[in-house]
Amino acid sequence: MIEIAPSILSADFSRLGEAVKMIENSGSDMLHIDVMDGRFVPNITIGPVVIKSLRQQSKIPFDVHLMIVEPEKYIEAFADAGADIITVQAETCPHLDRVIQQIKATGAKAGVALNPSTSEYVLDYVLDQLDMVLVMSVNPGFGGQKFIPSMLTKIAMIKDEIRVRGLKTKIQVDGGINMENIGDIALAGADIFVAGSAVFQAENPSQAVRILKERAVSGANHMEE
Ligand code: DX5
Ligand code: ZN
User: Fold this and answer.
1) Catalytic amino acids?
2) Which atom of ligand 1 lies at the shortest distance from residue 145's CA?
3) Edge-to-edge strand ranges of the sheet holding 109-114
4) Which of 64, 156, 192, 209 could form a disulfide with 83 if both were Cys (CB 3.0 to 4.6 A apart)?
């Protein structure tokens, strides 16, 4: 099933509550929340305290993307703040298997993100435990960057592995997704599409979400043919 996850990184941070409500009413499937610590990535955004207050505003699933070092120190805090999915970067977790267990113990769904240069093979011994794999299609830290085309191969390789193992793991893709390329990304095998600037810089964000979903569905249908 195709799902759209607008990223609030591209929203007006002085009016985050309104942005969350708009996304909830736009037919989006989840809200992608980019947490950055200024150490793993050269940018700093928000933490559990902001997520906790946004949680009061909306029922939409919170898809929390932790671009932070030592995420194991904060898993419970983000779960308590209302995260429904918690995604850690493979590059920040020497004990990845343990962190995945830690996330699942909170009741949240577990995701692992791979930077563009990180091979999918790092997931070989944990893929079976994952609800979601996040393929970064830009170098993390900022919205509005260009999609890295070679990630289409990584998406297809991971999709293949999920199929071979008969898993229900979803593939989320994040970075540089727009109306023009979302069909190809769906064709490669992606299930969940993060879109920041394509939604928040659109004239009509709700309409942008609808068009993105339509184009992803038609791209995925070509894959079925
Ligand atoms: C980048 C973030 C992405 C970003 C996507 O580090 O993880 O979620 O907000 O923004 P766009 O869709 O504008 O590339
Ligand atoms: Zn993200």
Assistant:
1) 34, 174
2) 14
3) 3-6, 192-195, 170-174, 132-136, 109-114, 85-89, 62-67, 31-36
4) 64
**Does 223 score more than 80 pLDDT?**
no
Percent of the chain with pLDDT over 90: 98
- The answer to whether the CB of 141 is under 6 A from ligand 1 is yes
User: Ligand 2 centroid vs 166 CA: distance in angstroms?
Assistant: 27
Cβ of 198 below 6 Å from ligand 1 = yes
Question: Residue 108: is it exposed, middle or buried by C-beta count within 10 angstroms (0-12/13-18/19+)?
Answer: buried
Tokens of 50: 């902001």
CB 10 within 8 A of CB 143: yes
What is the set of domains in the chain, with CATH numbers?
Answer: 3-224 (3.20.20.70)
57's tokens: 């505003």
Residues 150 and 139: their CA atoms lie apart, in Å, by 13
Taking only the tens place, the pLDDT of each residue in 10-42 is 999 999 999 999 999 999 999 999 999 999 999
Neighbours of ion ligand 2 (CB under 5 A): 34, 65, 174
With a 6 Å cutoff on the Cβ, whether 34 touches ligand 1 is: yes
